[in-house]
Structures are given as structure tokens and as C-alpha cells.
């Protein structure tokens, strides 16, 4: 029986880690790693499966016989809209570890804003013994925008911590014990929200979505005093100049950002120095290479047994 064609891999993150794991991944068929100089000019016409994160612009011309595309992360905005994208299934990366890590980050940020951690940090550096009286989590409403796999897990974890949690998605989701809102009810959702958590995918509709107009609709008289914006979805969904001005003007009381319009965040960006802003370098939930390749192996096996692929992207909505 002939050996099946190798999996094409074009991943623009952690090249050392990817190369290490590829030594043992896809044992039955092998791989073509475009980050490897010896593979860069290789004929790709034999490839049937491609694992991609921000792939080369000419990839689909070079690999015209693909049957399935696998994203190297939870998002697919780096693939959708590429020239020459074939009409074949695109599969998102869904992994328990990635989901758990994202929820850890979201809960941590909500708790830091709840308990005034930024002020505590300043007092510590100044050697000040300055007690703060924080509200209880139950007094604060966290509004989660985006109720996919990541959002649903974050909702569940935030509820365990005692927050009042509400959810918004383009089409309504039914979640036991959680008030949910759809696209037509956004203003009502925002008006009840003290801490806004953004976990939306990047689509044309969500580009530049978190702006000054949206921030002004958040609840401004809640237990925190001023609302807080937290984003770990996509950087191009936020208008960073509006975040900075909203904090300086007192519309927002703080922010936690893991994603940015341009990454890495430039050293002159005003967000670095704003009070009550926590910045992390897009590491809230990093794709772990072993889990990623196992996920692809499992989906290829399903596909070749004639079973339906899981986590297939709906191209009409972009996720």
C-alpha cells in the first residue's frame, strides 16, 4: 500500500517548537514544513491536507490539490479572504488546554479589576500600607461578547467565581442561568455591563467594533464606578486610540488587553503607560504544538473514514 501524501505545514509561530514536534507527528505520512529551508522550494502538488497559520500568499497556487485546510489556532481570519482560497473545508483548532488557558486569563483579569490590583501594585512600590474596599463579585456584571467554545467556558468559570454574568452573540445562545442577548439587543446588553469581555472572532462586522461609541454605552454607575474593557479576541476588533482616550476621559476605568491592532505593540503606543491597564503579549492562550498536531491527525483520520469533520468554519459568517 503506497504511503499517503505528507501534510503541508506553513505556521508562522514558534518555528523551533513546530520543527521539534514534527519529528514525530504524522508518523504514517510525514510532513512538508515550509519553515525548513530544504522544503521551501518543494513541489506541493501532492499535498492533500494543509496546517496553516498566516500562510504564504502563493500557497494555494503552489498546492492546488488540497482537500482540507486546518487552522493553527482558534481563529481563521488569517486564512479567510486570501487570494485563491479553494472551496474546501476549513477546520478551526479547538483544544481543551487552549480553552482552559483562555478562561484562566479572563478570570484573572476580571479579578484584578474587581480587587483593584493596579492600585495595590502602586502602593507596594511606594511601600504604602493602603487598604482598599472592593465590591464582591456578585455586585459586578461581566458581559461576555462571543459565546463560542472559549466564551462559554469563560462564562462558566466567571460564574463559579461569583460574578453576575451575561452573554452576547450575533444569534442568541441559550445558557442555563445566564441572561443572553442577540445582535438586536446590544445596547441593552452593554447598559447592564460593568466589565466587558471581548472574545469575538474577526470578521468584517467586528473590525473596529470596540470603539468610543460602544464604550459610552457600558454601565457607568455600577459597583466598580466606571466600566472596564477586556479583550482577548482579535486586536483589529478594537480601536486602540479610542481605548486610550476613553480611559483618559474617564469613560473607561481600566482595560486588560492581550491582542492589538499591530503586533508586537509599538514602544510609543500610549497604552503602555495608562493607569489600570494590564497588557499581555498575545499569550493568554497559546496553541500548544503537540495538541495542535494531535487534533489535525484525529480530524484527518475522521475524514478518511468518511466521518464528518469537526469544528468546520462557516464561511458565510467567517468563523
Word description of this protein:
Strands 8-7-6-9-10-11-12 form a seven-stranded parallel β-sheet. The protein folds into two domains: 7-95 and 287-305, Rossmann fold, CATH 3.40.50; 97-279, NAD(P)-binding Rossmann-like Domain (Rossmann fold, 3-Layer(aba) Sandwich). Helix 3 crosses helix 5. The longest helix is centred in the N-terminal third of the chain and has 19 residues, at 96-114. It has nine helices and twelve strands. It has 319 residues and is α/β, with parallel strands linked by helices. Keywords: NAD, Oxidoreductase. InterPro entries: D-isomer_DH_NAD-bd, NAD(P)-bd_dom_sf. This is Glyoxylate/hydroxypyruvate reductase A.
In summary, what is this structure?
The chain has 319 residues and is of the alpha/beta class. It contains nine helices and twelve strands. The protein has a seven-stranded parallel beta sheet. A five-stranded parallel beta sheet has the order 2-1-3-4-5, covered by helices on one side.
Shape: elongated
Q: CATH superfamily of the largest domain, called what? A: NAD(P)-binding Rossmann-like Domain
CATH topology of the largest domain: Rossmann fold
Question: What's the number of extended β-strand segments?
Answer: 12
Mean of pLDDT: 96
**Domain tally:** 2
| Poorly predicted parts | none
Name of the CATH architecture of the largest domain: 3-Layer(aba) Sandwich
Order of helices and strands: EHEEHEEHHEHEEHEHEHEEH
Sheet with the most strands? 7 strands, parallel
The helix fraction, in percent, is 25-40%
Question: Rg, please?
Answer: 22 Å
> What class would the helix/strand composition place it in?
alpha/beta
Tally the helices.
9
Strand content: 5-15%
Terminal Cα span: 37 Å
CATH class of the largest domain: Alpha Beta
Strand adjacency order, main sheet: 8-7-6-9-10-11-12
